[in-house]
User: Which sequence fits this backbone?
């Protein structure tokens, strides 16, 4: 069977309405709509606000035009599912030359990220941290589309860790577009992650001016990261019990995007999957 060129398929979709919208606008709208759909799976305090914003963004498009957005998310999900060892959105961003809009922002090629992630495990120091806390954490304070963190997740897996449970990912970027790319990719890969939008140098981490996005797998695992706290910790999100799958009370509150389902993933953990498009 011929291998699908997911990037090419995505580019065709983004250019379908090029006579009406710029690539930059469609890209950013796609990012917001996808991130909000993923974030709103859980009953978070920001759910209503993000839903309102979602409706305002999607409302700018006709019913026919709106169809490209779930198709784009499907493509990203299938691409990462087929090959999780890549920064799909980051490289697509460069292929579409969207970095020009951001004064030449440049993301690390995935092979370099992969090498840098692998050497983090060379000394075996993660074992001690894992023993002490039950998890390890990794932080990219200028995360871009998340290449370094994606590579870290894959390196953790190769080194015997279940990154869906045993790694807390923290990402920050000053640029909203970059942070949304990172959020979507970490969400789809099942990384428990906190993605923060704000200036790391002036306003690091949970500064009140920063926007904070938690991935669905963060919510599923947040009880594991008890030492980690942020403003969201006050949210009324039910906690998962040790040893069980998804808690029943959480199951009732989950609102998955239309073409998405939860399936049992690595080591009995739940993961996202898309109902495949024909
Ligand atoms: C060279 S890119 C690297 C991205 C990613 N770490 C990678 O390896 O692909 C640098 C990123 O840092 C972000 N950045 C620049 N200054 C920043 C700041 N003061 N606080 C947070 N992020 C910043 C940019 O928006 C950009 O996404």
Assistant:
């Amino acid at each position: 069977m011929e291998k699908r060129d997911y990037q090419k398929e995505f580019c065709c979709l983004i250019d379908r309405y090029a006579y009406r919208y710029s690539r930059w606008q469609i890209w950013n709208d796609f990012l917001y709509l996808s991130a909000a759909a993923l974030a709103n799976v859980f009953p978070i305090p920001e759910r209503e606000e993000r839903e309102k914003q979602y409706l305002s963004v999607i409302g700018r498009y006709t019913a026919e035009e709106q169809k490209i957005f779930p198709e784009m998310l499907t493509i990203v999900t299938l691409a990462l599912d087929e090959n999780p060892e890549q920064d799909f959105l980051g490289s697509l961003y460069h292929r579409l030359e969207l970095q020009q809009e951001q004064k030449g922002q440049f993301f690390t090629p995935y092979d370099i990220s992969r090498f840098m992630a692998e050497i983090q495990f060379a000394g075996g120091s993660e074992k001690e941290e894992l023993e002490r806390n039950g998890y390890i954490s990794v932080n990219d304070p200028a995360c871009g589309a998340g290449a370094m963190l994606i590579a870290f997740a894959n390196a953790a897996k190769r080194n015997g860790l279940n990154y869906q449970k045993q790694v807390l990912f923290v990402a920050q970027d000053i640029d909203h577009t970059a942070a949304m790319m990172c959020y979507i990719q970490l969400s789809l890969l099942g990384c428990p992650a906190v993605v923060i939008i704000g200036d790391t140098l002036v306003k690091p981490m949970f500064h009140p001016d920063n926007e904070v996005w938690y991935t669905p797998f963060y919510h599923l695992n947040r009880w594991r990261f008890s030492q980690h706290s942020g403003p969201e910790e006050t949210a009324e999100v039910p906690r998962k019990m040790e040893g069980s799958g998804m808690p029943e009370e959480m199951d009732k509150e989950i609102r998955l995007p239309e073409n998405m389902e939860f399936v049992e993933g690595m080591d009995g953990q739940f993961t996202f999957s898309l109902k495949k498009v024909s």
